[in-house]
Amino acid sequence: GAADRHPGDRARRRPGGRRRARGGTVVTAGAGSLLRRIADGTHSGPFALLHRPESGAPDRIDVLAGPVDEYETLAGLPLDEPGGDDGFELLALVPHRQIGERGFDHVDDGTPLAGLRITAQESVPLDEVLAALPRSADHPLALRDGGFELDDRRYADTVRRVLDEEIASGAGANFVLRRDYSARLAGWSVPAALAYYGRLLRRTSGQHWTFLVHLGDRTLVGASPERHVSLDEGRAVMNPISGTYRYPEEGPEAEGLLEFLADDKETNELFMVVDEELKMMSAVCADGGRVLGPRLRMMAHIAHTEYFIEGRTALDPREILRRTLLAPTVTGSPLESACSVIARFEPEGRGYYSGVAALVGRRAGERTMDSAILIRTMDIDRAGALRLGVGATLVRDSDPMAEAAETRAKAAGLLAAVAGAADEDVSPPAAKAGHGDRLARLPSVREALVRRNEPLAPFWLTDPGARSTPRPVFGGAPRPDHRRRGPLHGDGRHAAAGAGLRGGGPPVRRGLRAAGAGPRRRRPGPRRSAGPRPREDRHPVRGHRAAPGAGHPVPLRLPGPPGAEPDTGPGPGPPPGAQPGRAARRRPVRLARTGLLLQLVHRGRRHRRDPERPGAPRHGPHRPGRPRRRGARAARTRFLLRAVPSGVGDDQERRPCPGRPAHRPARPARLPTARPGSPGV
């Protein structure tokens, strides 16, 4: 069901009469001198103002200052040695191009990895900040020559190309395509930036961070709804957000909100990014993490759905950032394929859009980190040239013009605050968001959120300490060719997704396995096969077997892992981008419940057992004149499938099946399966 607690950090009271906001800032009486110097212009260096209501104190602003340097890699970011004083140490601005550290495609536009080394900091009450900031009437701003670099029609045409050329061909499940709004800000200055930031604080709601970072030659100001990853007391949290409900002119309404929650397209968008971030968390956390949610995030002009993924980790914050670059909610899934698509369809670099702002500090001798994804963020140079990147998540059933409208809605909140009304006014968007919060508490809305979890695997929704220990995937004693006895992954990130399963049982072994000729292609030779042909498939190099084109459901000639328990469930279904019709029909196959997250090799038969003839197959539902399909299959077990480690549910009563060979274990009680049309990883 929906999470009944928010995994975000909270401020806490410490002994000694001082309150430490989580993240390390020491709050003392008389704070605000740094803010006053910034507001009156006597502080001329780089600075940052951060409102972090979810991970800091909701009624305070972090005011930071210090020199800014540029770095080549995340590992080069400077952090103090262990044992230092509590407080913030570094504010890092990570551009999109930093994904090159992971070897993925990108357009190198030269945007630097910047780090503000914090030498002065204070936490100031929100009311005091609003009172100290310059007034809008004294520093008015106006947009000049503003517009999207790609108009709606051209953006929709590009969306169609991505759908037809990439998603329909199986290159990925979803991609985020960006377009930029550019303009010139008349009247731009540092005081004008501070006045604009004050308007954002009054007008926006539901943000993870509302921030202003002044680097000297450029200023980033924005209201990001999405956490990238946070670290506190050894607990890492990611916050995948996807699916967008655009408010009508009169504000959000219950009927429209319920339609949004029941929309398969919006649901699938979120499921796919959760799958991808589970892989990231599995590379960071020993137990792979736990999924909490879903929840609604009501904002000024739009609403999103979200999950939280949390787990324990001992990694350094810099390594956590590297392993979690970049968020699939702003790139796509699979991540490597998404980066390739972005590099080809977005000819200009993304700058800081889809990057990360990370605040690293220390408390009680332990590292802390809070970060926000750099979306809904204006990048403004000294002359007032503005660039605002916005994107939409594309899946196979996306409507190109609707995606264009979504990008406009995402930009609306920031642009509306440029030429704001009087400082004390409460804008209509804020009132709409308040009404949206009331809608989110309706019983019908809460029930709709709970229903979203019905097709999901309970394994990831369960606390790691309460999960049953799965039995080894491979039975018997280890053998010399053990590494070739089961399905393995060609992508190390996919193998890392088994970390949550490793925490409770079998280790992951890397290797290479024959996986067929590729997606949706049949191997030459007889249609049926008695089993694998290891000698024919053996690769000439060190006896390994070749695996060209593996990754999507492909026809294989491999047996199931010894000792794996079969279960009947939905087949792999249509690949990403499949159109309705013959190719999109789901067929029942047999799933070996080994707990592997992504791709599972097994022997499946498309038939049903005849209860009157135990052990004998009969023709299942199929078109007349078409032979039954038998032989090997590959099925992707997913976050949304109930294909979970065999240890989960082991306490269920096992009843023998008539006609089943004695050497095969009885099938456990069948678990509910995913709905047709659910997306894959």
Automatic annotation (TrEMBL):
Residues 556-578 have a biased composition (Pro residues). The keyword Lyase applies. Signal peptide: none annotated. Residues 507-518, 668-681 have a biased composition (Low complexity). Its EC number is 4.1.3.27. GO terms for molecular function: anthranilate synthase activity. InterPro entries: ADC_synthase, Anth_synth_I-like, Chorismate_C. GO terms for biological process: L-tryptophan biosynthetic process. Residues 1-10 have a biased composition (Basic and acidic residues). Pfam families: Chorismate_bind. It catalyses: chorismate + L-glutamine = anthranilate + pyruvate + L-glutamate + H(+). Residues 11-22, 619-636 have a biased composition (Basic residues). Residues 1-25, 461-681 are annotated as: Disordered. Residues 153-410 form the Chorismate-utilising enzyme C-terminal domain. Keywords: Lyase. This is anthranilate synthase. It comes from Streptomyces griseoflavus Tu4000.
